[in-house]
Amino acid sequence: MKCIDRILLIVCLISPLYGYSCSKVKRDILFQTSTINALLEGIYDGDVTFGELRKYGDFGLGTLNGLDGELVVLDGKFYQVRSDGIVNPVDSSMKTPFAVVTFHEADKTVMANKSLNLEQLEGYLDSILPSQNIFYAIRIDGTFRYIKVRSVPRQERPYPRLVDVVKNQPTFEFYDMKGTIVAFWLPEYINGINIPGYHFHFLTEDKQSGGHILSVITGDIRIQIDYTSEIHMVLPGSKEFSSVDLTKEKQKELESVEK
Amino acid sequence: MKCIDRILLIVCLISPLYGYSCSKVKRDILFQTSTINALLEGIYDGDVTFGELRKYGDFGLGTLNGLDGELVVLDGKFYQVRSDGIVNPVDSSMKTPFAVVTFHEADKTVMANKSLNLEQLEGYLDSILPSQNIFYAIRIDGTFRYIKVRSVPRQERPYPRLVDVVKNQPTFEFYDMKGTIVAFWLPEYINGINIPGYHFHFLTEDKQSGGHILSVITGDIRIQIDYTSEIHMVLPGSKEFSSVDLTKEKQKELESVEK
């Protein structure tokens, strides 16, 4: 054990006496800001900065304040896929209204070289996930014979609902493109809080393009799945969040927004 | 700033470089083990000890492994209300299949001396909660003109479903009893994970009786509400949890179990 580790361990042991909590960083935990139903209702401004979000994961997806594009988090770097297709690095001071991150550490790795469309890819992943009751962060690297993504345009107040925004979403298509799918699979009971089932974002290998996946045909891919049994959710402190009606059933809206 | 605080602060600042996380203990966060739907399905054994649970709160409710009674956590002490009505302190090495705790710090305090039945008490609380979208830990101290509670008997494997267990639940009635209600109110979107709306447990002032509240008429009471905007949920690692079907709609079962 290195000297610095010993010192940290000793400080960790005494820290609870002084109102501090000190431990090895929890890496097998999903962290999310706000709820998907709040996003569907047009709550597009959150109070969590990307500087803060970075502490909770190096892998994930979401969006940016003002609904200013799709967020892809890969290898600890945060990327904004704007609605004009341009990818920017995300500044630590920027904020997110909805994001999900974790530290990705593969519990299972599978190679595949079949041509799978989105439905077949989901079916294949279904067959290798060990339980329907925990969370999965799924990283898929490789070549994609075809991929269609969308982004969302920055909104101005008063914010429209998400289902109306995506009626005019810009889409982008790529053929034989190398890149990475950043995805989560979440259980049915997460309904209202996040998206049950799969949620796929994409980033090209050159980090120049990406977005929320609408369609895909895979080539040679490597699938790495991180099994996760904890979730930590932080709700926005805004008046808008406090007063929005989150009780409505939104299954159909969610499908039209996601697909 | 005291010397020890300075040292801890400096160590906290450098700790992320070495894979540690160090911060003031988060007190405004709800911590829960497992999901209510898993409990309804008969997943009565969890892997979280009360020694571990204690780190996450001094106030809360739940049950014990084997469904061995109702759990009440008050002022940092853990109480087991057994099905024979006896209250025992909970040993740190014992485990819970389902529990919710937080550090209770009142954001709002209200005195009331009306005679309220359970429905009226819920209506009154509804009128003073500022938002339907965050979590509330509710502590009610005072005199109760009437209170009816239940506990649940320890189960043997193979475990029956919760809805069948409560068909034979022992109940206890008290008149003009001093004590404390330990309760939570959770939003509708928590459905499947925890109980939307109110969930009331009770402990008498002498810590000799208590249970899950079925009926009440309040006397002079002090209501202290803790507003909470974060939740941390840890799922069980057991094979039983992994394989149980959590997708079924359980609203009616939940009502028959709670009321």
UniProtKB/TrEMBL annotation, chains A, B:
One of its GO terms (molecular function) is acetolactate decarboxylase activity. This is Alpha-acetolactate decarboxylase. Pathway: Polyol metabolism; (R,R)-butane-2,3-diol biosynthesis; (R,R)-butane-2,3-diol from pyruvate: step 2/3. The keyword Heme does not apply. Keywords: Acetoin biosynthesis, Decarboxylase, Lyase. Its EC number is 4.1.1.5. It comes from the Bacteria.
